[in-house]
Amino acid sequence: MQLIPCPFCGARPEDEFHYRGDASVKRPAPDAGEQAFYDYVYTRANPRSWHTEWWRHFAGCRQWLKVERNTLTHEVGAAVSPAETLPHTPA
Amino acid sequence: MNDRYSGWRLFAEAFRGNSGWKPAWRKPEPKPRYDVVIIGGGGHGLATAHYLASVHGIANVAVVEKGPIGLGNGGRNTTIVRSNYMLPSNTRFYEKSLKLWEGLEQDLNYNVMMSQRGVLNIFHSDAERDFAVRRGNSMRLQGVDAVLLDRDGVRAMLPMVAMDNPMFPILGGLLQPRGGTARHDAVIWGFARAADRRGVDILEHCEVTGVRRDGGKVVGVETTRGFIGAGKVGVAVAGNTSRLAAMAGLTLPVETHLLQAFVSEAIKPYIDCVATFGAGHFYISQSDKGGLVFGGNLDGYNSYSQRGNLPLVEHLMGAAVAMMPSLSRLRVLRQWAGVMDMTMDGSPFICKTTVSGLYFNGGWCYGGFKATPASGWCFAHTIAMDEPHPLNADLTLDRFREGRLIDERGAGPSPWAQ
Fold first, then answer.
1. Judging by beta carbons within 10 Å of its beta carbon (0-12, 13-18, 19+), is residue B211 exposed, middle or buried?
2. pLDDT, averaged across chain B
3. What is the CATH number of the domain that holds A25?
4. Which residues of B touch A2 (CB under 8 A)?
5. ipTM, two decimals
6. What is the pTM of this model?
7. Which candidate from B253, B304, B414 shows the least CB-CB separation from A21?
8. B105 and B191 co-located in one domain
9. Are A19 and B413 a contacting pair at CB < 8 A?
10. Total CB pairs under 8 A between chain A and B
11. SS3 B391
12. What is the pLDDT of residues B40-98, one digit of tens each?
């Protein structure tokens, strides 16, 4: 069981959250061109280490969170609200 | 062919104290250069090597694998074989695979314990029934067998299911009689032995650390056992395709996710087909040893860990007992997880890349095991001819850019929801 440190509710188990993928992906400007939108919709870095992700605490505060999590070890780093910047995570 | 397996050979070895059996494949040292290097010693990589040697006459081939062969998803699946897809691009590919499965034991001279016991998809609502009818009709139009069962038909096949669960009453099922199971390890060993006998070098404990390019062309792979030159390189490392792609400077429409599977303690014959529960994602069959083999959904977040978490275990056991209440007192013996390449439309790719001489085979999502023979067959064709076979012409990476998605489920570019 992964525990996600919700900044509003404290450490909560993963089944209180919905996952919504890679949070490093940014929507391009409307005139950015086809390649930028292709990358935005489809291509992913898919790292085998630390990964920045969207999780929504649907069974708690119902806030979207930006979470740093290791895809190899399932270690969970920091979680912040979407507008904030994640602190540097150790490699 | 003097070490061909046969009933006579078994009989003769019994009188020789079984002293005549040889290892099923060699442990060769890497040669400096091969015509083709296949990265990944799982079912798909070994099948590719087998078909390169047997169909295309290219035997100067190496299969490089970071550990022993068959310990990735080849040893972590739930052994189900079927071709009950709806979209033609998938149906014709998986039907080719099922046809190869049907003759695989003769082709490989290896007992892969192919058992066409039928795959039954149960439905629980009018909408699910309509979709099953549509999929069944699509399959039949493409020459694949499909039979629609009513309630009594399902009850006759599966007397242990809860027909009148108040939330999930069973209305019927869509059966593919030719579907079934095969012994997963035997498939790996069979392909390895058949490829080895044709001269393919299987290089175990040989991890690829880099793909060497000369301009726009691939010239070989860096490995933990030194550089190996190659005319062409095929990548069949589903679960880790993104990492190999990164070595070649490519980014793919793929995320890596966990899929768990379970085996119960062995019991007497309980279920003689493969059954899926339409109300949750749950499927079950029984192995020849008697253990019930079952699995369900992805854990739902990116992971390379090869181990699952408890929320999905709880969900799956709930689905199991909702479908077959008599399972409630059965004990689970083993649990494990494999890592899947989940693509943005839920379908695989077997294709050329922008790097000359580099070919990709991956994105198998849930469908990797059943695809093994056709995946190898099509990948071997794509590598040998430097162009895809019509069967895998649609299974490209370009389809995402071109808007030709093969989205069987229509879940959108959300790999965790496929």
1. buried
2. 95
3. 3.30.2270.10
4. 309
5. 0.95
6. 0.95
7. B414
8. yes
9. no
10. 69
11. helix
12. 999 999 999 999 999 999 999 999 999 999 999 999 999 999 999 999 999 999 999 99
